[in-house]
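Lab notebook, bench 4. Still working through the backlog of constructs that have no structural model yet. Next entry is a single chain of 59 residues. Request: give me the structure tokens for it.
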Amino acid sequence: MDFNILKISAFIVLLLIYLSVRKFFKNVANYTERLGQSFDDHEIKEETKPSNTTLSSKQ
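Model written out:
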């Protein structure tokens, strides 16, 4: 009887660890995605500034 309770409790503990690790890596992935998007947005803004000035100087 005790052996079955031990197996069930070990399974529940492993399941909780799996879910918490999965949630942690999901948060890390979301953070790095947002960080990459903000970096890309900054690069796009930097690239468009010189092209706008050259167009306005030609007119």
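Notes after review: The radius of gyration is 26 Å. The longest helix spans residues 2-58. Flag for follow-up if needed.
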